[in-house]
């Protein structure tokens, strides 16, 4: 019987019955091969808590890519258009260049439209220039203006309409948007002070970048069976696709440890937290035995933490009232409109939120309708359903909803959420597709999935999911009268464009 390599099977048969790490047969991750062809391998056990593993969240939405450094660094380009927050006042307005007439208003730029000051933006290097046409909006109304003078973070503006801004003798919070420019016939570029620019240069606006980073965390575990009990090892004679025949081995009891470790790897990518500089864990030393110390790398940023830090949070769609839930869901769409407006999104939610959304959609009599494209699933609704997703369309957005077992199971997030109150996590909304980022290592723009995993690997060692065997049983490596099967993974999560993500709490 030929053995076909599955997604998690990298074993090759050994010529003899040797318990090597290279010929271990993973009953859980062999693409279902063992369960399909060797049903008699499985002991008659009642799994009273179901299959017990979590939903495979990252395998459904993420991609994986290797890395070699201690951290992954990426840069995200800021918004294309120039929009700012500031204050407007007439009291200190300067003179209109060329006429000597007092300028109608003076605006002090404080931060960009997202409230960012410092990282990639300072008041003195904003993108507003002389001869720009802008919209000025505050409690007095909306005004179209021409920029006359730019003095660092202060600009003097001339309105096209009535000089109603002259009433602003008291500073007022103001939003500013650049929508174009205007020049007279034969007019050259002018300096920020409004005088003729002999170099005929205006000053170019450079794209603004924000740099983010994450670092991998090392996770370990092992399973041990004594030399006396090694008879529990089972052997299978197989033939590989290349025609190589030999033996592979398995341990039924070890499968639980391996499955639990695989879940730990995924949960760490969801729940991971970076330690604060003043925290107890930052720089702590862990004593291994009595002689070896190791300094912690202070965590990794998981999905939930990334969205809370840089993304969006909603407390809506609770199931209390279907009409209210619809209004709250539309508020989510309005927030996405303010960001990248990614049209296809994956939703992973707990049972209560999933039912609330079902009721909301049922009240519209349009569940699963509205022209859902299923583009993520090769335009196949059947494929989406087979993978456990239901699709619906609202506005210009397609959503693919799936229950997330991790948020329901009492032994994982289920019970934590029950007692967490407003801090409970009910689900996540994740943009599908890819975005462009600047890769600092390669020095160029690349397209990568919004959410993906980076794992440590080199030409000699792949630490994505590493397994090896030690002890005196089989291939002897030590005097230990046992067989130890070790698991190790070193990885981190990259949450790219977190402003397009939504955390449901």
Q: How would you describe this structure to a colleague?
A:
The chain is of the alpha+beta class and 505 residues long. The chain has a domain at 79-206. 17% of the residues lie in helices and 33% in strands. It contains 9 helices and 26 strands. The strands form 6 sheets. The protein has a 6-stranded antiparallel β-barrel with strand order 4-5-8-7-6-9. A 6-stranded mixed sheet has the order 16-26-20-17-19-18, with helices on both faces. Strands 2, 11, 23, 24 and 25 form a 5-stranded mixed sheet that branches. A hairpin with a 4-residue loop joins strand 21 (434-439) and strand 22. The model is unreliable at 1-10 and 30-46 (pLDDT under 50).
Question: What secondary-structure arrangement, pairings included, does this model have?
Answer:
Elements lengths: L1 E2 L29 H5 L19 H5 L1 E5 L4 E6 L5 E7 L15 E8 L19 E7 L2 E11 L2 E6 L12 E10 L27 E6 L2 E10 L7 E7 L4 E6 L3 H18 L13 E4 L3 E4 L7 H8 L1 E3 L7 H17 L5 E6 L1 H13 L17 H6 L3 E5 L2 E7 L1 H4 L1 H11 L6 E5 L2 E6 L4 E6 L1 E6 L9 E6 L10 E14 L6 E3 L1
Parallel strand pairs: 1-12, 2-23, 16-26, 17-19
Antiparallel strand pairs: 3-10, 3-21, 4-5, 4-9, 5-8, 6-7, 6-9, 7-8, 11-25, 12-13, 14-15, 17-20, 18-19, 20-26, 21-22, 23-25, 24-25
Helix pairs in contact: 5-6
């Amino acid at each position: 019987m030929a053995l076909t390599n599955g997604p998690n099977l990298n074993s090759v048969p050994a010529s003899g019955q040797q318990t090597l790490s290279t010929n271990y047969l993973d009953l859980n991750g062999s693409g279902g091969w063992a369960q399909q062809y060797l049903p008699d391998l499985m002991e008659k056990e009642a799994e009273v808590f179901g299959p017990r593993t979590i939903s495979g969240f990252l395998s459904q939405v993420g991609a994986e890519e290797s890395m070699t450094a201690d951290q992954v660094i990426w840069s995200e380009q800021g918004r294309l258009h120039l929009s700012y927050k500031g204050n407007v006042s007439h009291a200190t307005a300067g003179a209109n260049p060329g006429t000597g007439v007092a300028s109608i208003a003076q605006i002090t730029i404080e931060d960009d439209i997202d409230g960012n000051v410092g990282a990639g933006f300072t008041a003195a290097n904003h993108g507003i220039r002389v001869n720009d046409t802008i919209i000025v909006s505050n409690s007095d109304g909306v005004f179209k203006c021409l920029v006359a003078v730019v003095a660092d973070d202060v600009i003097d503006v001339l309105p096209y309409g009535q000089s109603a801004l002259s009433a602003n003798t008291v500073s007022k919070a103001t939003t500013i948007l650049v929508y174009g420019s205007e020049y007279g016939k034969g007019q050259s570029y002018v300096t920020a002070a409004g005088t003729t620019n002999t170099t005929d240069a205006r000053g170019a606006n450079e794209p603004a970048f924000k740099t983010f980073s994450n670092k991998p965390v090392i996770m370990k575990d092992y399973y041990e069976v004594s030399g006396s009990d090694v008879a529990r090892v089972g052997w299978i004679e197989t033939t590989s696709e290349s025609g190589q025949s030999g033996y592979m081995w398995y341990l039924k009891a070890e499968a639980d440890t391996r499955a639990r470790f695989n879940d730990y790897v995924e949960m760490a990518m969801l729940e991971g937290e970076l330690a604060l500089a003043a925290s107890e864990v930052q720089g702590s030393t862990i004593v291994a035995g009595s002689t070896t110390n190791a300094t912690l790398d202070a965590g990794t940023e998981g999905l939930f933490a990334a969205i809370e830090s840089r993304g969006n949070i909603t407390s809506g769609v609770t199931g209390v009232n279907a009409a209210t839930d619809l209004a709250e869901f539309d508020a989510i769409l309005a927030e996405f409109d303010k960001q990248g407006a990614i049209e296809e999104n994956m939703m992973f939610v707990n049972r209560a939120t999933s039912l609330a959304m079902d009721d909301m959609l049922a009240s519209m009599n349009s569940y699963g309708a509205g022209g859902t494209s299923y583009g993520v699933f090769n335009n196949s609704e059947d494929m989406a359903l087979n993978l456990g997703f239901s699709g619906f369309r609202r506005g210009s957005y397609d959503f693919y909803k799936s229950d997330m077992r991790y948020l329901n199971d009492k032994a994982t997030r289920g019970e934590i959420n029950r007692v967490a109150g407003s801090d409970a996590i009910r689900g996540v909304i994740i943009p599908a597709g890819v975005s462009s980022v600047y890769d600092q290592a390669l020095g160029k723009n690349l397209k990568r999935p919004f959410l993906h995993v980076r794992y440590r690997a080199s030409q000699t060692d792949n630490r994505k999911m590493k397994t090896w065997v030690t002890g005196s049983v089989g291939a002897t490596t030590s005097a230990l009268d046992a067989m130890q099967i070790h698991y190790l993974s070193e990885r981190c999560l990259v949450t790219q464009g977190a402003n397009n993500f939504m955390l449901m709490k």
